[in-house]
Write a structure and sequence with these properties.
Largest sheet: 2 strands, antiparallel
Number of strands: 4
Helix content: over 70%
Order of helices and strands: HHHHHHEEHEEHHHH
Strand content: under 5%
Strand order of the largest sheet: 1-2
Number of helices: 11
Oligomer: single chain
Radius of gyration: 20 Å
Low-confidence stretches: none
Length: 283
Amino acid sequence: MKNFIIRTITAVFFVAAIVTCFLNPRAMVFLFALVTGMTIWEFTGLVNEHQPSTTVNRMISTVAGVYFFLAMAGYNSGLTPATVFIPYLVSIIYLMIAELYLKQENPINDWAYTMFSQMYIALPFSLLNVLAFRSTGIDIQYTYLVPLSVFVFLWINDTGAYICGSLLGKHKLFPRISPGKSWEGSIGGGLLVMAVAVLVWYLTEKYDVNDIQLNALEWAGLGLVIVIFGTWGDLTESLFKRTLGIKDSGHILPGHGGMLDRFDSSLMAIPAAVVYLYTLTLF
């Protein structure tokens, strides 16, 4: 009972922080720059502790990832030119070259996990800025609708999948990596998200806030994309934890584990949403 109360309180504060931060562009940039840094710091710490013969430079990897997020925010909001990415590229080159001189036991693993921290964590979070700052051809406007929808759809999918899985789950979705997930739960969660996505379309049209101009079918498609790739994101983190032999990525969120545990689904759902929305503009 005590653990349930702790989980509930943490969840309420977590959801409130995410939702309210998207209402203001500065708050969004600040919070997710912090999230990016904390997640990379957690990831690199887990690798250094649990992966034999591997040493990742936590400080430089974390600072580089946060800088990349802020550079993407500056560039996509129109505040900075493309040259803002040069320091980030220099830091990546340094991390590659440094291994030639450090004489580490397994430099290939060091390279792999260092670059993975950027590709797996820094890049997806940075792409939130692509969803949030949109060019109208005249100027650049901030929109909270799509980035917030990504997280709302993921939360709804988790809830729907848990309920449907508990009531109807018989066929394992991916028993090798996550034996708790079922096909019934995943399908139920996906259908619920698509229904909510259509509701979002209806409400945004009714109140004239559908600033990305998606129709009902396109909103449902966005929901489906987020569900599919969010599930793969969850499985990816589960595979990472199994590889390291750990249950939770951390304990920073009482009752919910670490940063990776809370944002695992979004690390694939965000890039997938970007690809989906840009694909729609091609047709």
